[in-house]
Specification:
This protein is mainly alpha-helical and 277 residues long. It folds into two domains: 207 residues, no CATH class; 68 residues, no CATH class. The chain contains ten helices and no strands.
Length: 277
């Protein structure tokens, strides 16, 4: 489903969220049942070995790849439609959110980037760890607000949002159980958990550090970060993920570090950002 199609569906289908979360819950639950039948009890026994530690850096790297893939799948940056869907849903399963919920939040972020009232996750004046604590919760609340603003506060919308509050954590839990049953205790502890942590912190840092506040105007804008060893390495291994200013100007680029940048006035750059949103 294209980005425009999803936003259009959000405003025409009041059951979009509950249906996508429910289908994900059913599918993941069936996969868990299949894995339970496939693996023997011995697969879930845990005995530590030194080589397990080698899974940690691999997990950290894959967490970043998951961030890049769900992000680029949201903008249909992969060449084929089926590959966008595959990478988006697999990354959504990894991140526990599912693809549809994450995609809606990110598209609204582009639409209202750095608007303190409409952006799902503006940095505001929070510290990094304050922002890390609330970013995803605030993002969900903003989408719920948009839902109520569009569909009104009535019995149907209230019932739908109550069901979402029930089904969503069940879906996220089923997704986590799936990874445990797929990878076993060793893979889950030393690979999946580090990948989930790195994924979360990477999203937090991109949305926090790559939206710096101008000390003169007090306004935040998407910016490119490539000035430290960490940012240079992250941009190298994760497809230019910190070239965030470029991404907001040209959202469909798979690797925004390779966008050709020409000198522009501040007004022209602002116009570019408005068009990209």
């Amino acid at each position: 489903m294209s980005s425009m199609s999803l936003m259009r569906q959000f405003y025409t289908d009041r059951f979009l969220h509950i249906r996508s979360f429910s289908l994900q819950l059913i599918l993941t639950s069936l996969l868990c049942v299949a894995l339970y039948q496939y693996h023997t009890p011995e697969f879930y026994q845990f005995e530590f070995a030194a080589w397990h530690l080698a899974l940690i850096p691999l997990g950290l790297y894959v967490g970043g790849v998951s961030a890049v893939f769900i992000h680029n799948a949201t903008h249909n940056s992969f060449r084929w439609v089926w590959l966008n869907e595959l990478c988006g849903h697999l990354s959504g399963l990894h991140q526990l959110w599912g693809f549809t919920g994450w995609k809606l939040i990110h598209l609204v972020h582009h639409q209202y980037s750095d608007n303190v009232d409409m952006d799902p996750h503006p940095p505001k004046d929070l510290s990094f760890w304050q922002f890390a604590k609330i970013m995803f919760v605030t993002s969900s609340k903003k989408i719920s607000e948009r839902y109520r603003e569009h569909w009104g506060v009535n019995r149907t919308t209230q019932r739908m949002q109550k069901w979402v509050m029930i089904v969503f954590p069940l879906m996220a839990t089923a997704n986590a159980i799936f990874w445990f049953m797929l990878l076993g205790p060793v893979g889950f502890l030393f690979f999946y958990i580090p990948s989930y942590i790195s994924n979360h912190l990477l999203f937090v840092d991109v949305n926090y550090s790559a939206h710096p506040k101008d000390p003169m105007t007090g306004e935040s804008k998407p910016s490119n970060l490539n000035h430290t060893l960490y940012y240079k390495l992250a941009n190298l291994i994760w497809f230019g993920i910190y070239f965030h200013g470029n991404h907001h100007r040209r959202p469909l680029l798979f690797n925004p570090r390779y966008m050709e940048v020409t000198p522009r006035s501040e007004r022209q750059r602002d116009e570019d950002l408005d068009v990209a949103a």
